[in-house]
Amino acid sequence: MTGAVGALQEPVLTVQSVTVQFPDGHTALHQLSLTLARGERVALLGANGSGKTTCLQVLAGVRTPTSGIVSLHGVSHDGSTGQRNRWRRHVGMVLADVDDQLIAPTVRDDVAFGLRNSITRDMPLSEVEIADKVQRALDDLAIGAFADRAIHSLSLGERRRVALAGILVMQPDILLLDEPTVNLDRRARHALHDLLVRAAAEERTVCLATHDTTFAWEWATRAVVLESGSVLSDASCSSTLCDDALLMRAALDAPRFDKR
């Protein structure tokens, strides 16, 4: 089952016939093609090893494919410094292992780091502007009270929200999130859900890789299922998560409530 949900919307990020082969010979992605449109809410689903993280890395411009084309707003990534900076300006990615992304000693400093060190902005921001943007990002994720805490004192779920705040504060057009709901409690999941709905309403494109089919059911409008580095299914999230045969083949659990 394949489809092009959102094909009539403005495409913002595209991979065409992308293959990624690692030095050990393992092929993580095989001739994968995918287009994300402006304002879409896309869940990238699949079993461990299906290629979700590698796909996000290619979309984010941080992994160069072995072959194929990656394009942002119709312009392909040629590996130049200018294109890397362009990707950084428009695309923000939160890693599954957020500890690789957190670099400052306190929450406030970590979220402010990108604003203070960005080389993609035309004009530097004042400290007052930075403080205002940081506080709003923290409040959006219900972690404003953590602003002056040390990063190492936070739980994994709290650190995950700090990493997301550090990306959101940069206001990218496209958000790529790798397993964002892991270790989040109910309150944090609701805050993340509401924030991502608002992001799409602001015409930001959001694509998240997840095993959490319940969160996908509640949030996403489109689901792309990967299998062995290729697209197995690309359809509405509701039809995908009601397809028991597809879920079984993709080794995915059904959402944890009545789908009717």
Brief overview, please?
The chain has a domain at 11-101 and 172-249: Rossmann fold (3-Layer(aba) Sandwich).
Properties at a glance:
35% helix, Rossmann fold, disordered N terminus, 4-stranded antiparallel sheet, 10 strands, 9 helices, globular, 260 residues, alpha/beta, 6-stranded mixed sheet
Could you describe the 3D structure shown?
By secondary structure, the chain is an alpha/beta fold. The protein has a domain of 169 residues: Rossmann fold. A six-stranded mixed β-sheet has the order 6-7-8-3-9-10, with helices on both faces. Strands 2-1-4-5 form a four-stranded antiparallel β-sheet, with helices on one face. The radius of gyration is 18 Å and the shape is globular. The two termini are 21 Å apart. The N terminus is likely disordered.
Look at the structure and give the CATH class of the domain at 11-101 and 172-249: Alpha Beta
- By CATH, the architecture of the domain at 11-101 and 172-249 is named 3-Layer(aba) Sandwich
Radius of gyration: 18 Å
pLDDT average, as an integer?
90
User: Could you give the order of strands across the largest sheet?
Assistant: 6-7-8-3-9-10
The gross shape turns out to be: globular
Would you identify the regions where 5 or more consecutive residues have pLDDT less than 50?
1-8
Helical content band: 25-40%
Could you describe the largest sheet, including whether it forms a barrel? Answer: 6 strands, mixed
CATH topology of the domain at 11-101 and 172-249: Rossmann fold
Strand content: 15-25%
Oligomeric category: single chain
Number of strands: 10
CATH homologous superfamily classification of the domain at 11-101 and 172-249: P-loop containing nucleotide triphosphate hydrolases
